[in-house]
Write a structure and sequence with these properties.
mainly alpha, Four Helix Bundle (Hemerythrin (Met), subunit A), disordered C terminus
């Protein structure tokens, strides 16, 4: 997950550089590179998180809401990334930047959302997933069979 975070943060840095260079100083080759990398990188990272990390993190019921929110953020990020990919391809192939302010806003919206998402995962999800993945499988199986805390009555 840390490698995926690093890759996404590199993308954030590049998107920020593109936003900062608008309108006159935009590097069209950089736009093409980002157009090629953006969606595949996000989709692969999101699939890994949703299939491997989030199930470990969500073993406790009180984390289900966080996982739903993180998955919703994945959908939002990918949707914006699809729009940006089209715009980056247009710009990268020499197209006119009709509204530099709007493009800059979209770029900033995505990289800022991605950075916030990564910060939350680093602070909350990664430490828990790391501990759970170090726990022997026999202990994980036993702990997942226990009744949820809310059903234990007096332990609450």
């Amino acid at each position: 997950m840390e490698e995926r975070h690093a890759a996404k943060l590199e993308i954030c840095d590049t998107l920020e550089a593109i936003a900062d260079s608008l309108p006159a100083g935009v590097d069209r080759h950089r736009c093409l590179v980002m157009a090629a990398l953006l969606l595949p990188t996000l989709r692969e990272a999101h699939a890994y998180e949703e299939q491997t990390i989030f199930p470990v993190f969500a073993r406790r019921e009180d984390r289900a809401g966080s996982v739903r929110r993180l998955c919703a953020e994945h959908v939002e990020d990918e949707s914006l990334a699809e729009e940006l990919t089209e715009m980056l391809l247009h710009v990268g192939h020499g197209g006119e930047i009709a509204n530099p302010e709007a493009l800059g806003f979209m770029l900033r919206a995505l990289f800022e959302a991605m950075r916030r998402h990564i910060a939350f995962e680093r602070e909350h999800v990664v430490p828990i997933a790391r501990r759970a993945m170090r726990t022997p499988a026999s202990r994980l199986t036993a702990s997942s069979r226990r009744a949820p805390r809310a059903d234990r009555g007096s332990e609450r």
